[in-house]
Structure formats: structure tokens, C-alpha cells
Amino acid sequence: MSVELYDFDQAMAEFDPVLGLEVHVELNTVSKMFCSCANVFGGEPNTRTCPVCLGLPGSLPVVNAKAIESAIRIGLALNCEIAPWCRFARKNYFYPDMTKDFQTSQYDEPIAFNGWVEIDVDGEPFRIEIERAHMEEDAGKSVHVGLSGRIGDADYSLLDYNRAGTPLVEIVTKPITGTGAKAPAVAKAYVAFLRDLMLALGVSDVRMEQGSLRCDANVSLMPKGATQFGLRTETKNVNSLRSIEAALHYEIRRQAALLAGGGKVHQETRHWHEEGHTTPGRSKETAEDYRYFPEPDLVPVAPSPEWIAELRETLPELPDRKRKRLKAEWGFADQEFADIVNAGALDLIEATVAAGASPAAGRKWWLTELARRANEAGCELAELAITPAQVAELQALVEAGTLNDKLARQVIDGVLAGEGSPSDVVTGRGLAVVSDDSALAAAVERAIAANPEVAERIRSGKVQAVGALIGAVMQEMRGQADAAKVRELVLATLS
Amino acid sequence: MALTPADVARLAELARIRLTEDELSALAPQLDVILDAVAGVAEVASADVPLTSHAVPLTNVFRPDVVGPSLAAEAVLAAAPAAEDGRFRVPRILGEEQ
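C-alpha cells for the assembled complex are given below, as produced in the milestone run.
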């Protein structure tokens, strides 16, 4: 099967892309949306089901209060209005991932609507309008058994309903226009923004590889300057930030080739493959196909203004505002600050600064020595066994002259090895810089006596030769001396 | 109302019910009778009567986010027409992906 692809730059010269992004966020409540089965990832199949999430006759769902709270907090963080009254709806479909033959969702009464967020792509701000954020439940997981493991040529399918009934919030954008060639990057930045936001809110694990954050990416093309949107495709199975960008890049090239060749785009769902292409799925259903109707088994949700105000109080400082504030407070250049954010060191440095270190010192330790350790250990900075307070303590020891950088690295070894705080490691390993002048002076005398030719060269004015004597002194002091001080002493002795 | 056989065919498709031409023609006037009967409600309900989806005037019925027991997997699968590997086994899913 060969698919014709247009050159991306050429496509962007001839067409304007319009994006629409649907992001599903699995909430991290301890129990499911409508029943008390545990809400955890994975596990033995069909071990976390009950009459409610299996849709057995006579069972009745009851809404999880925490899920509603999380949905409202997400809505508030997205600058949405919160519905004073809304209902759940049944979305009917024929697919065995729900035993009920419908998904409990919301239709024309989402709990949150009309919001916006502002994201940043390479320093350029984009405002993304949010159409709605609604509550629903996740479906079960299917395994297709057959030649390729794909649904199309499967002999039969196997279903695990552990995930059925997991609370979800689906966040839907309004059409995103005006991005031009940045469309794929904007989509990626938006999903990254949502991921950070959900983490800050503490409402989801947002682990894309486990499916707790999923994105369906809609895109259409229209001739440059047109206002009438083209027919769109919706790409599913996009499970990483990188894939979102790649999938949209691919769809834009594919659609451009179709349109430029005088053809038409089929409005359909497409499936992203990590090897780098999409394949057609089912033709897109219309809302009518789902025969939505109000869920009679769940009473309406009517959050009072007082409750909403209370939940608004629980919102943390949101990531974008925090970044702007810290960048201004710390005074780093754009690239220096971007490095901090990309390394996942923002919160760590903030805490290090709060514990008394300067922003520059915080940045230095976390982005160099500690970044190297994290890299070697194959873990995130935040997973290293050293706290921001300990890093601040380490820096204080350096500034007090107790440690030089070389000793500080040994102290980090000790802290990471579980030997206690930096002070504990200094004491335990006997690492402090020797500041006893008489001990240093004696070492300097010995170094001069052992290297008479070097000493003579320095006396005759070749000051650059001092390095050899500093090295000798440092070696004798096992590195526990301040090199600048040693240099000063050597020169004073020989002058 | 006057439903056409084409309307009935669309409804049948949504409900995944296969009907013959004769059945479509026979069902259209029968469904009309039902719709006419329901339409009578619209005549009685004036604009000041709100749409009703729930019989009881309750809102905000919630449960605390607490984990309770689930069913044993064997019990769950015992109710399945077919099972394999701890999972429900279902026939091939058609019309989803080519």
C-alpha cells in the first residue's frame, strides 16, 4: 500500500491547517467513576469488576464525589465556566469494550465549557480555546487474536474490563487556526501543557505510555486564505508527545497530496502506527449514531457557587504562571531558563532557592553534576536520593569555604549513598577543606623544598610555574585545601 | 409524522436490526402511530413545564471515593458465553477498521 505524501513545506505554502484536539485524562481517584472497584493500572484481567461496571441487570451506578471535584478543578484551571446543572448521558454503540453497550458520558451539558489556555511554542504564544471538558468513564481493554493482532484480520477478541468505569475527563478544543506550519508543534506543546497542568492539580498520573493521558488529533486543510474548513480526519492511538507531532506532520502531508491531486479527504478515524504512518479506521460516526439520551440512573450534578469557590481555592499556582514568575524572579536568559524546564528541574531549583541557595547555584548543581548522576542512573532528577534542602546545604558549605567543588562532588557521592546530610558526609568522611594556616604553610614549605628548580623559576618571575607547586600541595592535602589560598601562600613565601 | 420506509431503515441500521423491504413498509405506519401518541404530550406541555428526564427532584447524589470489594474473576467469567486467558472471548469485531 503506497500513500502519496506532499512535501510539508509545500503543503504549508498552499494550505492552512485547522486543528482540533481531544485529550482524555484518566483521573487518579482510588475507586472507579460509578462503583467502588479499585482504580489502578494493569493487574490480572477481570479482577476489578462488579455488577455496576459490568452493567449487570439491576445494578445502579453512583457518582464518585472525588471525580466530580477533580473535573471541576480541571475546568477551573482551564478558565472554563462550570455548569450550575448538568446531566450524564448514555452514548450507545456496538463494541464489546463496554458490556453495557453504552458509555456513560456527557452530551450537550458538559460540566465545564468555554475556557482557554495560553501555550508557548518557541517563545511564541498561542491561545487555545477550550470548547468543553466533560466527564465520562473509560472502556475495557481488548486484545485481538489473529494474524497480526490487529482488529481487521482478527479471528476473535478478548476483553478485560478492569479499566471499564475508570473516571475520565475529556478536554476538547475549539478549532485551532492560525498556526500555519507550527500546527504539529502547537499540538505537542498543548498536550505537554495539559500534562503539566494535570500534574500540578494532582488529578491524574498523566502517563501517556500507560494511556492515562491520550490524545485524538483532528486536522483538516483548507486552501491558503480560505475560511471554510476542509474535511477532517481524527488520528487515534497517539501515545507520546513525539507521536502527536509526527502524526499531524504525516496527516498534513497525506491530505495535501490528496487535495493537490484534485481528490477529497475522507472524513474518518485513522490509526497512528509508531513506524510513522496512519491507516484508515472506521468512518466517523455522527452524534446521531450514538443515540445519546440522559442517563436515567444518575441524578443531575448541580455544583453550588460556594462549592465551586471552595474548589477554586484549592488550585495550586498553575505551571505557566509559575514559569513566568520564576523566570522574572531568577533573571535567567531564555535559553538558560528553557534548559531548566526541559530538564524537569524547575520545582527542584525553586525548592533549593527556598532553602537558601542562589538561583545560579541551584541551576549549577541540578543541571551539571546532578544531571550527570541522573543520566548515569537512568532516572529523573527528582528521583535522585538528594533533596533540594541538601543541595542548598552543600552550596552553603562551599560558600563558607568548608568545601571546594571537588570535595562537594564527593559529598554528593556520600549523600546519594545514603550517608546522611552534606554535613554528616563531611564529618563522616573527614572531607572539609583544611583552613588551618600552619598546616597549609608547612605543606607549602615542603613542596618548595621538594621542587627547588620550580621555586627558583617562580622567584625569577615565571609565575605561571606556580601550578606545579599548587598541585603538590593539593596532593599532600588530599584535595582538602582551597587552591586559590594555596597559590596565594606559595607566592607570598617565594616573594 | 409520516415516517418513510427510509427513516425506518436508518433506525434499523442504528439498532443493528436487519429488516426486509416488506418489514420496513409494514413498520413505518406502526411507528407513526406510536409517535403520534407521544406527540399528544407536546400538546399538553406548555412552555412553562420544564423537560423532565428524572422522576425524582434530586441532585448531587455522590459516593465517597473509597475502594470496596470486587467480584472474583472466576465468578465474573462464569457468566461469560466464552472466556480465554482470564478474559471474555467475543466474536470478531466487524466494521471498525479495514
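The mean pLDDT of chain A is 91. Chain A touches chain B through 61 residues (CB under 8 Å). Further analysis is deferred to the final report.
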